[in-house]
TrEMBL record:
GO molecular function annotation: carbohydrate binding; hydrolase activity, hydrolyzing O-glycosyl compounds
Protein name: Alpha-glucosidase
Pfam families (alphabetical): Gal_mutarotas_2 (PF13802), Glyco_hydro_31_2nd (PF01055), Glyco_hydro_31_3rd (PF21365)
Glycoside hydrolase family 31 N-terminal domain residues: 80-241
Gene3D superfamilies given in the database record: Glycosidases, glycosyl hydrolase (family 31), Golgi alpha-mannosidase II
Domain of life, per lineage: Eukaryota
Stretches assigned to the Glycosyl hydrolase family 31 C-terminal domain: 667-756
InterPro entries: Gal_mutarotase_sf_dom (IPR011013), GH (IPR017853), Glyco_hydro_31_AS (IPR030458), Glyco_hydro_31_C (IPR048395), Glyco_hydro_31_N_dom (IPR025887), Glyco_hydro_31_TIM (IPR000322), Glyco_hydro_b (IPR013780)
Keywords recorded for this protein, A-Z: Glycoprotein, Glycosidase, Hydrolase, Signal
An example Gene Ontology biological process: carbohydrate metabolic process
Length: 920
């Protein structure tokens, strides 16, 4: 019975709670806790926000004792970010270190500074409203504009124990969820109810489905479409401990084995606004050097420098673009970091090779693993021991095994460890002037498990072993601590594997006594930060780092690849979802090993994979030492596809680099799900076989064996084929359209209303970026009126900062209009044009798609002056434009207009107008 003092608002909130519980019936009633009651809530006048105190309702013993008193802190940190932070009210708990991921800190525990009681049951910001009920304590987050509930914890019971935290939220059945990685999702980018989502950085191959992989990103985007109007928001639980996230379709439950409940809510409402708001908190994506957008070639198994030289020469002979050549650990002396094999990679010959490729504009990247070989004659080890930089177990460096044999792991949470790492990279760079670093095995990976010692009765590593990944240390499992054997078992490795299996023991300690149990998933993130600091200090150049293990915020320092995939058709398809997910995670520079890491791809598969991989943001061919050679020139048919697809990529480099700038300034993914540009096109919510580059370039690859056609879906409008601009898809609805896709071709289309900056391309990005520009202007097919726009950003691509500074960068906005079917105007606005003028960058052509006319330009004016006799301007031959339709194809006459012979300085604004003749 409700008491007579119950307010109407409280009654309404109770009703909401009961309603939510009804719809959350899919989530089993928790038996591990009975929740908390809110005993007080106050306004924090010193810094803003609300501070509340929660009291346990009833104790349970499941998964350990409950924490009796909790402190709630709620604050609208910005107009588009709400934070809800719940922790132990009496003792500090582990959180993601504030120096590692800088952000606002809650008031200190026990602080009494300037508070006043709060009687309101809602706390409103500019876009979001936080509301709560007192007994049991639950909270909800709603949109201020329409009252839509985005998060509602009344769906379940809040449980808060030392090693087990649980909280749930109700979700409408119509919600489409994305994120919660890293994992390989066989069902596509949209999360599927009942699939497992476990977050704990783990070195298992990406071929394992629905399992925790190399990264931990506890954030999801929720896209809903109510009444034909889409709105997106995101929820981040900033917590580095292992967790299971259960998604039923109508509810989502977090089960976390430590830390705090630290939620951030981002209201969107567009998908692009969501990632903008998210990356404003976690760090904007790192700017990439221009060359990083070129093609990369790597292989584990380039046994000597002559092989590498042969690979570079092979690409040149095949006329396939190549910007970066990589070494896995083959360049190392006995797999030891920061060394060179004196026989197979002698320094004088390597330096001569680098001098030659650097003079051409090519780059060289090598791998380093975190494990430092335990070898008393190894300088890196000696200096590390002297600086006391390694992770400890019971006061001594924790012993593990990776490729060089016995190793110690550096502690990147230790300031001395970071300084030592920076110094070692500097020393190595003096030895070999590499252009970037690849940090691998940083989950951290360990070939052994538990507490290990050097063997007494045998050698480790085993001399001549063909299986160096087999543990050769003397090890014992550690199960006698609650950190190594916690009360709740997350679904690690898809099998509830021990947390310390094949990694650092979770009872090992970092600097300041920090437990590996808490910091495990931060290891690759902390290594990326230290590596970025090191590279940024070298020669004042923009760093390039590729990291396998990632966490929230890693994108501010590193690129990512999807790990050890398999050379088969399903992995080709899976790669798209993983690439798109990392765009949501704030890591837009991402790609998959083209043709597969292992075993042996077929010629046809490699053919199709380079067609897709040419449009990954990060485009690299990489393979295992046991696989046959699969460089793109090995097969003639693959070489042809590579020249075709990479040829288009290199023409699109100015567009890709502009997307890189957008990513760095607003978080916008380079490769995006289709719904990012078309959020009201609900058919695209689960589309995982196509994607957009930027807002308007659609990539539709062949993903199945023995197919020469592809079924593709296009949001309504006109889409022009970039390889043959006389072809267009005109879509009116959500039906799939069948497109021709011969063996050596991929379908790439540009949307109407777009101006796409392109260049001539080349064999290397340095060469390509010096060529003149062509502007591709696309209007709706046959429209009487139309408008288009686009932009390009150019700079000195190796400056550490990527920002508009006069003389160092330029940003040009392009506009076009079509009026009364015949009058076309194209013009530009320039911001900071001096850099472009100094570089002599020119526009040589403007190509306009979708207009109809007689093929005669009556007048062409450039900056108000008629071109003499139309000199330098001509119309391309009128060609039939093939319109792909759902029910088949037909031909309609259309003119592709190309104004050529121009020499317009990119850095100077221009305007050009012409009027077409009328057919008939």
């Amino acid at each position: 019975m409700l008491s007579s003092s119950t307010s109407p608002l409280h009654l309404a909130l109770c009703c909401v709670t009961l309603l939510s519980l009804h719809f959350c019936a899919a989530v089993p009633t928790s038996k591990v806790g009975f929740g908390y009651r809110l005993v007080s809530i106050e306004q924090n006048r010193n810094g803003g926000g609300l501070i509340g105190h929660l009291q346990l309702k009833q104790r349970t013993s499941a998964y350990g004792p409950d924490i009796p008193h909790l402190r709630l802190f709620v604050k609208h940190e910005t107009q588009d970010r709400l934070r809800v932070h719940i922790t132990d009210a009496e003792e500090g708990r582990w959180e993601v270190p504030y120096n590692l991921l800088p952000r606002e800190q809650p008031p200190p525990l026990g602080s009494k500074a300037s508070r006043s009681p709060s009687t309101a049951s809602e706390y409103a910001g500019d876009q979001l409203i936080f509301s709560y009920t007192s007994d049991p304590f639950t909270f909800a987050v709603k949109r201020k504009a329409n009252g839509q509930t985005l998060f509602d914890s009344s769906c379940g019971t809040i449980v808060f124990k030392d090693q087990y935290l649980e909280i749930s939220t109700h979700l409408p059945k119509t919600a489409s969820l994305y994120g919660l990685g890293e994992n390989t999702q066989p069902g596509g980018i949209r999360l599927r109810p009942s699939d497992p989502y476990t977050l704990y950085t783990t070195d298992i191959s990406a071929i394992n489905l629905n399992s925790d992989l190399y990264g931990s990103h506890p954030v999801y985007m929720d896209l809903r479409n109510e009444g034909g109007e889409a709105a997106a928001h995101a929820v981040l639980l900033l917590n580095s401990n292992g967790m299971d996230v259960l998604y039923t379709g109508t509810a989502l439950t977090y089960k976390v084995i430590g830390g705090v409940l630290d939620f951030y809510f981002f209201p969107g409402p567009s998908p692009l606004a969501v990632v903008d708001q998210y990356t404003a908190l976690i760090g904007r994506p790192a700017p990439m050097p221009y060359w990083a957008l070129g093609f990369h070639q790597c292989r584990w198994g380039y046994k000597n420098l002559s092989v590498v030289e042969g690979v570079v020469e092979g690409y040149k002979k095949a006329r396939i673009p190549l910007d970066v050549i990589w070494n896995d650990d083959d360049h190392m002396d006995a797999a030891k970091d920061f060394t060179l094999d004196p026989v197979n990679y002698p320094r004088p010959k390597l330096l001569d090779f680098l001098s030659r490729i650097h003079s051409q504009g090519m780059k060289y990247i090598v791998l380093i693993d975190p494990g430092i070989a335990v070898n008393s004659s190894y300088g890196v080890y000696q200096r590390g021991m002297a600086k006391d930089v390694f992770i400890k177990y019971e006061g001594k460096p924790y012993l593990a095994q990776v490729w060089p044999g016995p190793v110690y792991f550096p502690d990147y949470l230790n300031p001395n460890g970071v300084a030592w790492w920076v110094d070692e990279i500097s020393r190595f760079h003096e030895l070999v002037p590499v252009d970037g670093l690849w940090i691998d095995m940083n989950e951290a990976s360990n070939f052994c498990t538990g507490r290990c010692e050097l063997p007494v009765n045998h050698s480790c590593p085993v001399p001549g072993s063909k299986t160096p990944w087999i543990c050769c240390l003397d090890c014992k499992n550690i199960t006698n601590t609650r950190w190594d054997d916690p009360p709740y078992k997350i679904n690690a490795s898809g099998s509830q594997a021990p947390l310390g299996s094949k990694t650092i023991a979770t009872s090992a300690t970092h600097y300041g006594g920090i437990l590996e149990y808490n910091a495990h998933s931060l290891y690759g993130f902390s290594q990326a930060i230290a590596t970025h600091e090191a590279l940024q200090g070298l020669q004042g150049k923009r760093p390039f780092i590729l990291s396998r293990s990632t966490f929230v915020g890693s994108g501010a320092y590193a690129a990512h690849w999807t790990g050890d995939n398999k050379g088969n058709w399903v992995n080709l398809r899976y790669s798209i979802s993983t690439v798109l997910n990392f765009g949501l995670f704030g890591m837009p520079m991402v790609g998959s090993d083209i043709c597969g890491f292992y075993p042996a791809p077929t010629e046809e598969l490699c053919n199709r994979w380079i067609q897709l991989g040419a449009f990954y943001p990060f485009s690299r061919d990489h393979a295992n030492f046991a696989s046959p050679r699969q460089e793109l020139y090995v097969w003639d048919s693959v070489a042809k596809s590579a020249r075709n697809a990479l040829g288009m990529r290199y023409k699109l480099l100015p567009y890709l680099y502009t997307l890189n700038y957008e990513a760095h300034t607003s978080g916008a993914p380079m490769a995006r799900p289709v719904f990012f540009s078309f959020p009201n096109f609900t058919a695209s919510y689960g589309l995982s076989t196509q994607f957009l580059l930027g807002s308007s370039v659609m990539v539709s690859p062949v993903l199945n064996k023995a197919k020469t056609k592809v079924k593709a879906m296009f949001p309504p409008g006109t889409w022009y084929n970039l390889f043959d601009m006389t072809k267009a898809v005109i879509s009116k609805d959500e039906r799939y359209i069948t497109l021709d896709a011969p063996l050596n071709e991929i379908n790439v289309h540009v949307y109407q209303n777009t101006i796409l900056p392109m260049q001539r391309g080349g064999m290397i990005s340095k060469e390509a970026r010096a060529t003149p520009f062509t502007l591709i202007v696309s209007f709706p097919f046959g429209a009487a009126e139309g408008d288009a726009r686009g932009s390009v950003y150019v700079d000195d691509d190796e400056r550490p900062e990527m920002k508009l500074v006069d003389g160092e960068a330029s940003c040009i906005e392009f506009y076009a209009s079509l009026r009364e079917k015949t009058t076309v105007t194209v013009w530009s606005q320039v911001e900071m044009g001096r850099f472009s003028l100094q570089k002599g960058l020119l526009i040589e052509k403007v190509r306009v798609l979708g207009v109809q006319g007689s093929g005669q330009a009556l007048v062409i004016e450039v900056d108000g002056e008629p071109s003499a006799d139309g000199s330098g301007a001509y119309l391309a031959e009128t060609s039939p434009m093939h319109q792909e339709k759902v029910e088949g194809g037909n031909s309609r006459s259309s003119t592709v207009v190309e104004v050529a012979g121009l020499s317009l300085p990119l850095g100077k604004k221009f305007s050009m107008t012409w009027k077409m003749g009328i057919n008939g």
